[in-house]
Amino acid sequence: MPHLPPLARFGDRVATGLLDVTSDPAALDSTGFWAVCADYEGRVTCARFAEVREEPVPAPRPGGWQGPSAGDWESSLDRAAYTAGVRRIREHIATGEVYQVNLCRVLSAPVAADADVDALTAVLARGNPAPYAGTIRLSEHGVEIATASPELYLRRTGRIVESGPIKGTGRTEADLLDKDYAENVMIVDLVRNDLGRVCSTGSVSVPDLCVVEKHPGLVHLVSTVRGELRPETGWPALLEATFPAGSISGAPKSSALRIIDALETAPRGPYCGGIGWVDADRGAGQLAVGIRTFWIDRTAEHAPVLRFGAGAGITWGSDPEGEWYETELKAARLLAVASGSYEVSGGTLS
Q1: Is position 167 annotated as part of the catalytic site?
Q2: Which of 56, 111, 163, 285 is the most buried (most CB within 10 A)?
């Protein structure tokens, strides 16, 4: 593919002029502006950029993004395998091993060799705007990500840190079930415990619980958990205490991660990881949970592959077919946007 210069884009902020790349999160407590991608499996990429400027996401340009055909997407778990996984998780819940598990599948489709995630970002910004949208293009380091994430993983301002777990999804507020509210409260408790490992005693609070947020094509239940970091606590300790996010793992987290490993057949990669920025000079940063996220995988011997993940939180009250439908709901709009078949203002995106 043609050489595309490294860049990172978060909202109306774009970073260029790559200075260095490291896998050590301790660098985030040094100096400079960093783009951060932490894969679900634990690979961390931190890239420091020389220049950061305000620049709106450009409008899609003709021929800028040529996505896969809508019919080319394949899932790591088909409907039968996914619903069987839901039933297996309910068996684990029945024995008391776990209370909730987030079961995910990865969708994949071939994409052109010259595909550019920044061009995909322009399409996503028009077809599926998101509060934590972001792009990281580090082609030579195997990181090409465009996210339309609605979920806050970590926001840090000095010693104050927040997380915004999402649990509960429906097409409208009327679709939300008692199970969704119970699941949200369960994950909030997990996030409180995670932050409590690195925050001052008594400082962890829940300012918002189960707030209904509207996003393109669906609604979510969102809560806010806040705490004050202990003195001298940096990014490595904060990530170690909270990663992966509770909303995309389960409770108890250790049991959920073991069950996920047994049931899922494809690595999640940046999906369900952490994606965002850190301004080390100002002691600030914001990482999204890597949901509603596309990434280009060029490691295979065949043509490059565009990947996208979708999942659902499974509890004892879960209906297998209902959970499959939730993953379909979460994926449908984004896949249509990426494939150029989603209509906006009377015209399709391309």
Answers
A1: yes
A2: 163
